[in-house]
From TrEMBL:
Primary localization class, coarse: membrane
Protein name, per record: Cation-transporting P-type ATPase N-terminal domain-containing protein
Keyword Nucleotide-binding appears in the UniProt entry: yes
Protein's organism: Vicia faba (Broad bean)
Lineage: Eukaryota, Viridiplantae, Streptophyta, Embryophyta, Tracheophyta
Mode of membrane association: Multi-pass membrane protein
Amino acid sequence: MAAISLEQIKNESVDLEKIPIEEVFAQLKYTREGLSSTEGESRIQIFGPNKLEEKKESKFLKFLGFMWNPLSWVMEAAAVMAIALANGGGQPPDWQDFVGIVCLLVINSTISFIEENNAGNAAAALMAGLAPKTKVLRDGKWSEQEAAILVPGDIISIKLGDIIPADARLLEGDPLKVDQAALTGESLPVTRHPGQEVFSGSTCKQGEIEAVVIATGVHTFFGKAAHLVDNTNNVGHFQMVLKSIGNFCICSIAVGMLAEIIVMYPIQHRKYRDGIDNLLVLLIGGIPIAMPTVLSVTMAIGSHKLSQQGTLTLNKLSVDRNLIEVFIKGMDKEHVILLAARAARTENQDAIDAAIVGMLADPKEARAGITEVYFLPFNPNDKRTALTYIDNKDGTWHRASKGAPEQIIELCNMREDAQKKIHTMIEKFAERGLRSLGVARQEVPEKTKESAGAPWQFVGLLSVFDPPRHDSAETIRQALNLDVNVKMITGDQLAIAKETGRRLGMGTNMYPYATLLGLDKDSSVASMPVEELIEKADGFAGVFPEHEIVKKLQESKHICGMTGDGVNDAPALKKADIGIAVANATDAARGASDIVLTEPEFEKR
């Protein structure tokens, strides 16, 4: 296929979704090193920013809109009555009432317009700080950038928990599981293989891969769908409440005016002008004209305070070198660190990977002397990462893995006495508020990435320091004082959960996930219904998303709020009555939540 211009690509003269991936390279004029920053800026001028077009609203029409609601209609009717119907009985129109009513309308509308406009600016500034981010390859280097800068031809990294920022074609790698229910209505995640397309707005549920952007902004599948409903006017809950109050007031005043007319004229035989004056009093006095303004100002103040709360923060993890436990004779702590670093990402790192690789004298040591064959990314079910690699010295194949100790122990199929020794160390770490990370190694004599390999060896245990935030205990204390029952749901070991609960003052009556499945041998809870156990417990450890604790509480008629930050928290955040994504949450957690916090001090809310 002959190459075409970028303008033709913008006009969709070629179907980038269907042509072979090699032709996508040629048509988009990019390389495996990604675009240059200069080329990216040039393409933004052609394709526009990677976001949907925002409708520009006339300030004047917006101002007039505050005079166009049921409550204002009654006041406007009173103004007309003051100069039209009041002109009788030998008296001039009631200009004083007319001017007073008009001034009241203008003042209320002006205040509402100014405060709501300021609130909109504050909310826009806040949302700008929460703009979606993405890992993009520019100038041969990976960096985290706002998704709005993406253009066709950019190479992006997609991993577990990411919301895909643009329509893209997957490059080489393992299949990706993608949740695109919000776009296509499919209830289950779909599998996308290299070369296939993924859509903007869908969520990565499993896997990690690179992709090339083929469409951005209004040209994406999501953008086209949004354009079709662009003229749909959704009425918010606030407007619906105001409309209901206004309709009630109008109906009440109409009934009152009808009764007053019947009483004043046919029964009392009042003069025309006296009756009109009384009706004006009823019209003006019966309408809470300032109510929309008061509510608008109240919400505006909330937006101002919210916008001043700060920016996102980043929690730093650290590994204590002195507390590393080695379980292989002849191996030293430095080699355990090296194996853990082998099983970590050297680019696009999460907090744990960054902490482990940071322990090396030179981060390049993590891949020095080896050839990477296959990297297994983290997912909530396996709770570990692994690297299959070739030792360049002798050509032998090996694997290194790190992750949750229970998963690594299960992987190694260890003897009971060895497991007890490891669990003893885990509990000692937990008593000091330290999380544990298991490290294992394996030889791969078959020399293929799919092969089972030789038996795994548990080589060491790392202690990861991630203490509770300084404000957590006070937050929980305030919640308990408000009769809010706070429960901990964590994927960590039971010992760590209990120690954390003790430090936070929320209790230590916690159980392992086995109790939720009826597998706990503890006689005190074995006969207890799961619903009752969940209500009485302070928390659960080793929990997976499918255990559905929030759902069980809701079935027991409890109103549940859920806080979280990880992709494994997203299902519960979505299910909860109020889902709250805390500072630095993943895209998936933020997308599933009703509220997104911008700084860690939750008690200020």
